[in-house]
Amino acid sequence: MFDSFAAETLARWQFAFTVSFHIIFPAFSIGLASFLAVLNGLWLWKRDRTYLNLFNYWKKIFAVAFGMGVVSGIVMSYQFGTNWAVFSDKAGPLIGPLLAYEVLSAFFLEAGFLGIMLFGRERVGDGLHMLATALVAVGTLASAFWILSANSWMQTPQGFGVNEAGQFLPEDWWAIIFNPSFPYRLVHMVLAAYLTTAFVVGAVSAFHLLHDRSDPESRRAFSMAMWMALLVTPIQIAAGDAHGLNTLEHQPAKVAAMEGHFRSEGDNQPLALFGWPDMQAAELKYAVEVPYLGSLILKHDLHGQIRGLTEFPRSEWPPVPVVFWSFRVMVALGFAMLGLGLWSGWARLRGKLYDAPWLHRAAVAMGPAGFLAVLAGWITTEVGRQPYTVYGLLRTADSLSPVDAPAVGASLTAFVLVYFFVFGAGTFYILRMMSRRPATPRLGLRDAPVRAAGITPAAQKLDPVKGA
After folding, report:
1. Model confidence pLDDT, tens digit, residues 93-129
2. Which of 25, 169, 180, 350 gets the highest tally of CB atoms within 10 A of its CB?
3. What are residue 26's phi and psi, to 5 degrees?
């Protein structure tokens, strides 16, 4: 017998599972593509072979992560037709073109120049190779642009009309693409991707520094990663605050769930650090609160008034415990990143950046922090939008295909088994690559006369006459 509630729950779990696997790979490859472009540019500028060794090291990891991101993303598009056909029918005239733009303008750009970046240095020359590397980085950013535009429209829809069949039809593409939440979400996500990559690079480099503090590639990469942590994390916190204010304006129920605000507190809204949201009693139990701080953060006013969830119909409440705790995980990880960045800055000032084993251990422990923060942020955003797929217009229960719960459950089980096997193997392979130090070219017998003359192999390559 068809159980629509069970089918909806399983379909949501299936999409959540597949997108959770997918999102970690673009979050890594967006930042890593830009990191590779910077490394390649520094190699061409300074001709310091350390940068070239790092580029060659991380480009292999990028290739594997990029491939897994592509494969994991294809599956989600099929789910729009199998599990969410009503959503695809009603929102397809808007979402379809945005996703098509992503493929035509961004993915083709990445895929078209990826081969040149990976294998073309000796074939096309430094200039064209640098251009290809930069275009791969631009392609990853363009991909984020279109995907976030589509998702942001689902959060803050505008620029559309509705026909007799209930389909959303485009009326103003400029308004659709640049919807109210899009600029904030784009900045927040791109910075999150950069920080994700920075903490992975920092963790890998710190791991190698714990074994050999003199390794030049690990020292250089660790320094670059810690600069990113120190400088970009405060910007990300500021961007998150701006994004929160925008969400408060357009999705106040989501913010109330994030903060655990069930009832309006007048002009003294405290900030709940911890607690247990009880939706049945409409109460945050065991709350640890800081007076006035909620009003200050959300209204930038000690006496700002914030609407509680009880001011909205209970049928429009998102799952408060999930949103409440995922938001706190994201924020806690953000401040942990800031703490590591400040610690590295202090160590750098003291000249101990490469001679601080506890800093290096902390950096290794923080390696997954970016991925966890991205997942926590995604859960906050998407679960907080419930019970809607298109906020305020199309409910999730009304977006489902006419599918049976057992069929969705069987496909979910298959996804879990296949994903853990395939992507588990891919992740294990990436970790194996990361466990090896970036290769430093060693002088062989044929280089002995060059070494005796005081000429490095890099100099010989740059100046063949002098090398001869």
Report:
1. 999 899 888 888 888 888 888 888 989 888 888 889 9
2. 25
3. -60, -35
Q: Is the dihedral of CA 353, 359, 361, 366 positive or negative?
A: negative
pTM value > 0.85: yes
**In this structure, how many other beta carbons lie within 10 angstroms of the beta carbon of residue 8?**
19
- Asked if 408 and 10 count as a contact pair (C-beta separation under 8 A), the reply is yes
| Chain centroid offset of residue 194 CA | 8
How far apart, in whole angstroms, are the C-alpha atoms of residue 139 and residue 62?
Answer: 14
- 149 within 8 A of 177, measured Cβ to Cβ: yes
Q: What is the pLDDT of residues 132-188, one digit of tens each?
A: 999 999 999 999 999 999 999 999 999 999 998 889 999 999 999 999 999 999 999
Residue 292 Rama label (left phi>0; alpha psi -120 to 50; beta): left
Q: How confident is residue 279, by pLDDT bands cut at 50, 70 and 90?
A: confident
Rounded distance between C-alpha atoms, residue 222 and residue 202, angstroms: 5
16 vs 14: CA distance, rounded Å: 5
**Cα torsion through 380, 383, 387, 388, rounded to 10:** 80
Residues 76, 11 contacting (CB under 8 angstroms) = no
Q: How far apart are CA 282 and CA 154, in angstroms?
A: 27
Structure tokens of 157? Answer: 């829809």
DSSP code string of 400-437: --S--HHHHHHHHHHHHHHHHHHHHHHHHHHHHHHTSP
